[in-house]
Amino acid sequence: MKVLITSKSFGHGTDGVKRLKEMGLEVLYDYNELSGADICIAGNERCSRDFFEAAKNLKLLCRRGTGIDNIDVKEAHKRGIIVTRVASVMKEAVAELTFALMLILSRKLLLNIEDARNGRWGKMMGVDLSGKTIGIAGMGEIGREVARRANAFNMNIIYYNRSRKEDVEKDYRARYVNIEELMSSADFITLHLPLGVETMGIINADRLNLMKRTSYLINVGRGALVDEEALYYVLEEGRIAGAASDVFINEPPVGSPLLRLPNFVPTPHIGSATIDTAKKMDDAVVMEIDRFLKGESNINVV
């Protein structure tokens, strides 16, 4: 059997490719060989109807990641192709990045570091996280990890989700609110929602204008959750204190005016980019392929 690796991250710093070969698989990297592949390990690239039409022999598509908004799952199912994704293993890394970005913004770390490097000792004042309200949009596995850390930081927790999570409310003294109250009440708003019809552009101009002038927005979910043009204007005009994003509508965001703003912190989609998490993700993909080859049921089927 042949496996085509289109993910740019699979096998980087791990033994993932070696293990595939040990299973007796022929490993391909050339997208032009898609028609002959039985298995595909996909990253963030678009797997549309055209993709599946070209993948004439494809039986298993393993998404090396959590989000599946780049995959036409219905088209895959129509063709009898199994689609899996990586679940759970990224939650700690993404939650840690969320807090890293919150601390960068709240303590003006980038500006203070730049001043220190240039011999300036101005000590720009920041704000504490302790005692502030965090608004978590999306209380899935990552949102829960963020809530756990926010609780340790002595933050007040409110959250928005399609459904209430009473265990989270009990464990972390969190309060369930609608999206408008979350935007207007929180000092730090963190986005962890999946991208879909209901959430596309959910953080629009009207909702950004609900935010307090002293509040911060952190997006580690999907770029298209946020109206980037509207975000630029509220930041440029000082209507909110700052924002950070690990994800963008177009990646890389070449030419985005957001990159010019001193109160905006961009990172290049590094939510899961740790050595530990990379190994866990590759292990999860290899496990799904191994189960498939053995005729066993896959675990994280979409």
Automatic annotation (TrEMBL):
Residues 99-271 form the D-isomer specific 2-hydroxyacid dehydrogenase NAD-binding domain. Keywords: NAD, Oxidoreductase. The keyword Oxidoreductase applies. It comes from the Bacteria. Residues 34-302 form the D-isomer specific 2-hydroxyacid dehydrogenase catalytic domain. One of its GO terms (molecular function) is glyoxylate reductase (NADPH) activity. It holds the Pfam family 2-Hacid_dh_C. InterPro entries: D-isomer_2-hydroxyacid_DH (IPR050223), D-isomer_2_OHA_DH_cat_dom (IPR006139), D-isomer_DH_CS (IPR029753), D-isomer_DH_NAD-bd (IPR006140), NAD(P)-bd_dom_sf (IPR036291). GO terms for cellular component: cytosol. Coiled coil: none annotated. Signal peptide: none annotated. Belongs to the D-isomer specific 2-hydroxyacid dehydrogenase family. This is Phosphoglycerate dehydrogenase. It comes from Calorimonas adulescens.
